Automatic annotation (TrEMBL):
GO terms for cellular component: plasma membrane. It comes from Nakamurella antarctica. GO terms for molecular function: antiporter activity; xenobiotic transmembrane transporter activity. Keywords: Cell membrane, Membrane, Transmembrane, Transmembrane helix, Transport. It is a multi-pass membrane protein. It comes from the Bacteria. Belongs to the multi antimicrobial extrusion (MATE) (TC 2.A.66.1) family. It is found in: Cell membrane. This is MATE family efflux transporter. The chain crosses the membrane at residues 7-28, 40-61, 82-107, 127-149, 161-182, 188-205, 230-253, 265-286, 306-325, 345-363, 375-394, 400-418. InterPro entries: DinF-like, MATE_fam, MdtK-like.
Length: 432
């Protein structure tokens, strides 16, 4: 099986386009909504953080399915790999509907909590969130499909799906917000339309494989066991991000607006760097599935090198654009000034992040989920969250909040590097 640099870049390129689908939805929203004013931008920041939390299972379905499907694919069992995707899709529908129901119940209190209490920002955030949540089943179905498609190393189908969905969103969002006059709510409607379309195309790709489409509870149970550690890992991320958003919201609308701009840019760049992690996950999983430990380690070294180079290049670009880039997202001078305060942290994290995300992918592809979970939880509980809270207590400003994110990245970088240098993650076979 091919583990060459060409294959790595092919998988990474495809993974990047797929990974940035949801952040592009929010980046388009941020750019369009940002020119409505400070309050709508801050509302999008609060509601977007909650929407990401509700979609937490998408990450677990995606990464969990990729690892299991890749091992079957490496062992020469493509049909079993696709069946993993079918069962993940059933889980996506079930949990998407549950998340939608729970989200509608908590939308009001949750947005008021993040926005710092009742007011214009909280009301606007709640309105956006209640609409956007109808896209949750589609988000999870797309994630499940991406998982098995990556596992069988299909680099074309995921790209077609997200390109079409994002074209729909990019066209619909500004039209619904401005000429139609729906304002902030128009961006939420555009997201739901695009996500639902993408989910329909994913299901069509699955049906073409001609594998059994009925629920298989034993397989779903195994996927839930694998996903348990990934859910906790994702919860650590989202708990940290929600804490940071809540702290920024209490600092003021300008700080929350700048945090929204900075976080969406970081998420976008993180997913660009994470594309190498997805390539590593698929290739490492396939190599271990057929028992080739040497290929697994060589792949780990290559993607780490590529991630480091990509992180450094992106960091240089953002350092050069520190003044211009914030102006793309907002004309508010107060928000721009706050963005400049967090910018050094945003730039500094990129080279380290390039290596970290690649190592994450190696360990997830190897099924070393428990270690990744524990490191992420400890980094959040003893790094990001305490520093974000301290920023509010000691009046460190938005820069202090982002110092917490930088510490979160640094702790994980050290722990992942130590793990991959050893051999405990190198376990061969169809499953771990």
């Amino acid at each position: 099986m091919d583990h060459s640099p060409k294959r790595i870049f092919s998988l990474a390129g495809s993974a990047f386009i797929v990974l940035v689908a949801e952040p592009i939805f929010l980046l388009v929203d941020t750019a369009v909504v940002g020119h409505l004013g400070r309050v709508p931008l801050a509302a999008l920041g609060a509601a977007g953080a909650l929407m990401t939390l509700l979609a937490i299972l998408g990450t677990t379905l995606q990464y969990g399915t990729t690892g299991r499907a890749a091992r079957y694919f490496g062992a020469g069992r493509r049909d079993a790999a696709v069946v993993e995707g079918v069962q993940a899709s059933w889980l996506a529908v079930i949990f998407g509907l549950i998340a939608l129901g729970v989200g509608q119940v908590i939308a009001g209190p949750a947005t008021r909590l993040i926005a710092g209490g009742p007011g214009e920002v909280a009301d606007a955030a709640e309105s956006w969130l209640r609409i956007a949540m109808f896209g949750l089943p589609g988000i999870l179905l797309i994630a499940a499909a991406n998982g098995w498609l990556r596992g069988v190393q299909d680099t074309r189908t995921p790209v077609r799906i997200v390109v079409l969905a994002n074209i729909i969103s990019a066209i619909a969002c500004p039209i619904l917000v401005y000429p139609v006059g729906l304002g902030l709510e128009g961006s939420a409607i555009a997201n739901v339309i695009a996500q639902t379309f993408g989910a329909a195309v994913c299901l069509r790709a699955q049906r073409r494989e001609q594998v059994p489409a009925k629920p298989d509870w034993p397989i779903m149970k195994k996927q839930l066991v694998v996903s348990r550690d990934l859910v906790l890992r994702a919860a650590a991320f989202q708990g940290s991000y929600l804490t940071a958003a809540a702290v920024a919201g209490r600092m003021g609308a300008a700080q929350l607006g700048a945090h929204q701009v900075g976080l969406q840019l970081w998420n976008f760049v993180a997913l660009l760097l994470d594309a190498f992690a997805i390539a590593a996950q698929a290739l490492v999983g396939a190599a271990l599935g057929r028992g080739n430990l040497l290929a697994a380690r060589e792949t780990a070294l290559r993607v780490t090198k590529y991630g480091a180079i990509a992180g450094l290049v992106i960091g240089v670009v953002f350092a050069a654009g520190w003044y211009v880039i914030p102006q793309i997202f907002t004309a508010d001078s107060a928000v721009q000034n706050q963005a400049h305060a967090l910018w050094p942290w945003l730039v500094a994290m990129m080279p380290i992040g390039g290596i970290l995300f690649a190592l994450d992918g190696v360990l997830l592809g190897a099924g070393d989920n428990a270690y990744v979970r524990t490191v992420t939880l400890l980094s959040a509980l003893f790094g990001y969250i305490p520093l974000a809270v301290a920023a509010a207590v000691f009046d460190w400003g938005i820069g202090g909040v982002w110092a917490g994110l930088g510490f979160f990245i640094a702790i994980r970088f050290i722990a992942m590097t130590f793990r991959v240098k050893g051999d405990r993650w190198l376990v061969a076979g169809e499953s771990r």
